[in-house]
Amino acid sequence: MANRIEFPQHGGPEVLRWVPYDVDQPMETEIIVRHHAIGLNYIDTYVRSGLYPVSQFPSGLGSEAAGEVVGVGSRVTRFKVGDRVVYCQSGLGAYSEYHHVDQSKAVILPEAISYQSAAASFLKGLTVYYLFHMTHKVQPGETLLFHAAAGGVGLIACQWAKALGAKLIGGVSSESKAQRAREAGAWATLNTSKEDIAKRVSELTAGQKVPVVYDSVGKATWQASLDCLQPRGLLVSFGNASGPVTGVDLAILNQKGSLFVTRPSLNGYLTTPEQLDQAGAALFDLIIAGKIEVSVPASQQFSLRDATQAHRALESRTTTGACLLIP
Ligand SMILES: NC(=O)c1ccc[n+]([C@@H]2O[C@H](COP(=O)([O-])OP(=O)(O)OC[C@H]3O[C@@H](n4cnc5c(N)ncnc54)[C@H](OP(=O)(O)O)[C@@H]3O)[C@@H](O)[C@H]2O)c1
């Protein structure tokens, strides 16, 4: 018998329940992971609220955690019992003491990286990997705008951009977040709650604007993000923290300078175990080299049974960097 978080219907953070359950045997290609730290991601709030609806209730939640392998299915080749692993993109249910995960979603965790650092950085770091190396290849010296730069994905992006020699302008909603983003490597910041985003980007770039904008805020920043782009620039719209972008009139891309827009997801980029291993290795190398640091303050480490409180914190915009759930 173990415990996990479930929800019986979509709704606010209060729908999350702490319930006992039986840990089944693994299917042929599954591993059972005993969790030491669980990643909290903004996408979990979309699943809970119903923005991304689930197919059946009660439903588990979460898709990322780090821990040790305590069971393997009969056709598992990548892992053995006792291995330290981290995974993401699993089926829903990572908010749990144990989770059954297909072996294709996990990688071996290097000894030098703690379970907590791994759970705080794997999904978010792989996201930055594909955004900076695959969606658009960020170049040394290139200037880019990255919204929510002091968030979980954002602080990793600030550090990764610096490691690549790029000049990241971080969009944030407060001065304390601006400071945090600059400490992490942002070249400059703008305060989205006070400043005209496009005007500030224009000032910072001597009127040149930027070739690429990474926008996970969505509805609230869509228009301004387009206005920050150079002719034929690329808007990478990869999240909906303020609500989804809908009803787009394509003519606007013509009017604002023959722009490009893409709406990517991690699932569409890292689709094989080999790609996961490669992207994971790139992230782990940067962490081990000290170029990406992912410590999570005690105030953002929540007991797993307090997932409701953790979701309230994340949605209130008061967190910086990553949050964890600890079983
Ligand atoms: N497509 C993909 O592959 C992919 C993968 C991973 C994550 N994502 C997206 O990346 C974003 C960041 O994820 P995360 O887990 O690291 O979360 P996070 O950045 O730690 O938290 C979300 C941040 O969004 C900003 N925000 C702006 N408007 C908001 C609003 N109305 N309500 C709440 N927050 C608002 C807040 O920063 P400020 O207060 O500074 O504005 C907040 O801290 C999310 O949108 C997520 O969906 C996409």
UniProtKB/TrEMBL annotation:
Similarity comment text for this entry: Belongs to the zinc-containing alcohol dehydrogenase family. Quinone oxidoreductase subfamily.
GO cellular component, as recorded: cytosol
Enzyme class: oxidoreductase
InterPro entries: ADH-like_C, ADH-like_N, ER, GroES-like_sf, NAD(P)-bd_dom_sf, QOR-like, Quin_OxRdtase/zeta-crystal_CS
Enzyme Commission identifier(s): 1.6.5.5
An MF annotation (GO) of this entry: quinone reductase (NADPH) activity
Catalytic activity of the protein: 2 a quinone + NADPH + H(+) = 2 a 1,4-benzosemiquinone + NADP(+)
SMART domains: PKS_ER
Annotated ranges, domain Enoyl reductase (ER): 11-325
Official protein name in the record: NADPH:quinone reductase
Keyword terms of this UniProt record: NADP, Oxidoreductase
